[in-house]
Amino acid sequence: MDSIELLRRLSEAHGPSGFEDEVREHIWKTLANDVDEIRSDALGNLIVRRRANSETAPVLLIDAHMDEVGFVVSHIEPTGFLRLAPLGGWDERVLPGQRLEVRTREGKKYIGVIGTTPPHIQTGDDKKSPPTMESLFVDIGATSRQEVADWGIRLGDSLVPAQSYVELPNGVCAGKAFDDRVGCALLVELFKELTNLPRLGIEIVGLFSTFEELNARGAMVGTFGIAPTFALVLEATVAADVPGVPEARCPTRFGGGAAITLMDKYTHCHPRLVRVLELIAEREKIPYQFKRPIFGGTNAARIHTTRAGVPTATLSVPCRYIHSATSLIRLSDYEATRNLLRAFVLEAEKISAEVTS
Ligand SMILES: [Zn+2]
Prior knowledge:
Layout: H1 3-12, H2 21-31, E1 37-40, E2 46-50, E3 59-65, E4 70-76, E5 82-87, E6 99-103, E7 109-114, H3 124-128, E8 138-139, H4 145-150, E9 158-161, E10 166-168, E11 172-175, H5 178-194, E12 203-209, H6 217-226, E13 230-238, E14 258-261, H7 271-284, E15 288-291, H8 300-303, E16 312-319, E17 327-330, H9 331-346, H10 348-356
Parallel strand pairs: 3-12, 3-13, 13-16, 14-15
Antiparallel strand pairs: 1-2, 2-12, 4-5, 4-9, 6-7, 6-9, 7-8, 10-11, 11-17, 14-16
Helix pairs in contact: 1-5, 5-9
Bound molecules: zinc ion (ZN).
């Protein structure tokens, strides 16, 4: 399977926080024959393992979160409209007019539209204030609460944007949930590649984690169980090189290559790991950039404070319009991140000695 097909499938999978099963099943099927061990844990994390050439080798944990920002049905109006509660951080301004996909407990899917008030009937106050989550409603074409129930839609059912994956010119890909399905795709590709290589002097454990968008609960328990020597987090991060955003507020540039995090709101990445990533990128001539401090946060926040502390770095693909219904990535950035990840893993035994000495 090529990168595009993998990105498309992962992007289109329905998987908000706590409802990651479609993503998990797809990755499970894709990797089952390529790894030494594959399992899930009590919080739904998918954990895959490629053993080292010795029993006592250090363990490198590589994390990518499976969940995307989404919603659950919080109320069903007598008139058949659905109300929403958020799973993760949404900007309410970008929601009205979007199509959503609601999935029932039985796995049936329906399309709905987040209703809007046309300008014709807006009052002055409507125009001034942004919408709130409580004010939004989803129109699924139903006419009554009973009809919604008959379709199998119930409280707590999950919703995500109804967006298919599309390719734009210049290697730009548009789709939902690139945060963090690009990380999942990178990790899948890495394990596929490892099967063709001799065993390394390091054990590689992939953590496809749940609940990142809800305080990184999945990575917290997953990392505790794995007890890694050091860790790398794969993410999609904010690219904001668009009109109206000053350069100083732009965390990364689209097309600027793999983004190495120095520090974000919750993590100072391990300085030796940051240095190693920089040196590898320079040596291999892989396009890279430093993510501007100190925007955002990732699973690294939980991972690096697990047990007695885990040296951790974060590597990201720049992504425009993150946490909205459609985001964009550039394949050249994806490839740069994949190449830097690969080079890092091939040297991981040496790197482990450096960070733990
Ligand atoms: Zn993320």
